[in-house]
Amino acid sequence: MRQWKAGLGVALAMLAPWAHGAGFDCAKAGTGVEKAICAAPKVSAADGQLGEAFKAALKNHPDQADALKLDQRHWLASRDAALSTYSSIKEAEGSVLTLYQSRIDFLKGLDATTWPKPYAALRPVLAKLPASDAKVPADFAKTGVAITLSKDVQLADAAAFPWQPDASLREALKEMESYAGYRKLEGSPISSLWSMGGTAHCWTETPFRIEGKQAIAVDAPAAWSGGDCMTDHGMARIAGDVVAYVVGDGSADEVRFETSVWNGKAFAEDHMLVLRFDHALSTVASACAPTKEACEDFAKVAMAAATRYDRSPQKGSLDTAFSPVDKAAFAAQLKAARAANGPLDKDSESPELPLLDDAGGRMTIYSHDAEPFPIVFRGETLLGLIDHGHVGWRENNDWMVSAWRLKAGKLEPAAAAYVAVGRSKLLLAAPVPAPPPETH
Predict the structure, then answer these.
(1) Beta bridge partners of 190
(2) pTM for this one?
(3) Please, what are the domains in the chain?
(4) CA dihedral 364, 365, 367, 371 (to 10 degrees)
């Protein structure tokens, strides 16, 4: 339940990132941001450290100043969105400190003069990645780098495994999920038996050496040892090196590419490359009541709201986005929304984005924590709702915007729009310390 939604960056998204560091006078703290930071000394200190790291990055990389500033705004917005899932700064502190440390590591990583394998081969061609919806590592093939990705060969049953498995692999074959297989990389001395299961799409990997007809299990790289979820696994040959990799790209702004090079005997130490991207908003669909036909004027209003909220996704960001507002009308609509069976009633089913029968197959269910705000459309103050699309616990990057009016004591949908958030050009990339493996 999201009750504390001030985040740590209401003003940070528009001011210099170090403006609210540890050094400001907490006795004069007046905003929710200042009070939250002052209530958590460790977070306050981390905010100051981030400010210093950002200033150092600007000084050391003046040719990338514009990209750095834009990327910092994106990071602040995503951080504030993440923080909105917590009920208090005390509850959020551990995750907040991890977010700060990851960002500081990235900014310091920009100073690296040499990159580890296989990233050294990718560094010269980063600027050649597609400027829209880049896929890592597949799109590196479009840059001229010598890269071959493994193919996943599915196994219907253990008897279809093409090698003679050792004891470890026999056990892995017994325990594999219904969706399982092995990785085929032509000419590679190494492969892996993989299995994916659960609603979180969690991977289990058992890598092995290929010796003639024998398959002999080897220790997994750290990235594969925790059964991680909601990522993309694979193997590849990059500039002659065979690597196991994990890609985390749940955000339009960031891809985390973790790899380990096979050294002939074992997988070497893991390394991680973080790639930071710009993103762009585009309207996928819109509709107005009662006909449900496309409605360009609401699409423009929804885009204005989504653009503003995208920069600062937290409570209050849209309270003054539209004016003048009929405050009494909005208060009545908000009360109805929170009443029984209203779209913000936490005891009822989450509502779907109304009026749109098709948004290109995208997720169109609101969470109960959708952000309400006053929206003015065709001269009328309505209840606006904005949120990411959800299915169960899953959440996407896009924005759903709808407007509701109060009629005969009940809310009814007046208009709706779906605004997609798509990855655009690469802004920055840097090697960072690989995280410890996680268990699930």
Answers:
(1) 209
(2) 0.91
(3) 26-109 (1.20.1270), 119-269 (no CATH), 279-422 (no CATH)
(4) 50
